[in-house]
Amino acid sequence: MPLFNLVKVWGEFVVEVLEPGERLIAMGYFNPDVYGDSSRLERTDDELSPRELEQLRQTGQRPSRSDRWIEGFGWTGLQLHPDRTRRLVSGSLGSGSPESVAGRLWRGTRGVETASLEWAITDRRLIFLNRLSEQPPKFAIHYAVQRSAIRSVRRHSKLFFQWGRCELTFTDGSTFAMMLAALDVSAANRFVRALSDSA
């Protein structure tokens, strides 16, 4: 069980940023910098490496991403594909185009301070909150996804300190992984239960 019920601790302050009549169901901490394979989340042109941009300029085609385990051999020996290795150890961070629900969510939650980001589930939305101040607690909505866009959610743990990992599948077929706790599975269970129950 979690040490604190964040809905009881912060609920009255979170309600201030919700829509009229929107009901807060569950809350928890979110780590957007979870280690994993992001290669299946397609990049925009602005996010391509200089080498990839040059290939795009010369051929007019985006570089294809290899999914082979072995990339080749070098003076250090066998060279394994880094994306496949990350996927084996820590799982995939998601899949989808830049315009997909997962693609927009991935970009919307990157580059934030993990100490000040929380997830909240209401009867209408999955919300990511910035905690702007401690005393008194003040929140702002950083990103939100309508619950109607979420097709399913499941716990999808990995062996290495990712027991509290969940995976969302959206109605457009894209997917997004969330790391809610390293070892404690209760946060992941609360997250899945809150999104699985009918609003």
What is the second-level CATH architecture?
Roll
Task: List the helices and strands in order.
Answer: HEHEEHEHEEEEEEH
What general form does the structure show? globular
Biggest β-sheet: count, sense, barrel? Answer: 4 strands, antiparallel
Pairing-aware structural class of the strands and helices?
alpha+beta
Relative strand content:
25-35%
Trace the largest sheet across and list its strands.
1-5-6-7
Percent helix range: 10-25%
At the fourth CATH level, what is the homologous superfamily?
Pleckstrin-homology domain (PH domain)/Phosphotyrosine-binding domain (PTB)
User: Roughly what is the average pLDDT, rounded to an integer?
Assistant: 78
Note the total helix count. 5
Using the coordinates above, name the CATH class.
Mainly Beta
Question: From the alpha-carbon coordinates, what is the Rg to the nearest angstrom?
Answer: 19 Å
From the N-terminal CA to the C-terminal CA, the straight-line distance is 23 Å
Number of strands: 10
Give a description of the structure.
- The chain has 199 residues and is α+β, with helices and mostly antiparallel strands.
- The protein has a single domain, classed as PH-domain like.
- Helices cover 24% and strands 31% of the residues.
- The protein has five helices and ten strands.
- It has a four-stranded antiparallel sheet with strand order 1-5-6-7, sandwiched between helices.
- Strand 9 and strand 10 form a beta hairpin.
- The longest helix has 11 residues.
- The two termini are 23 Å apart.
- The model has no long low-confidence stretch (mean pLDDT 78).
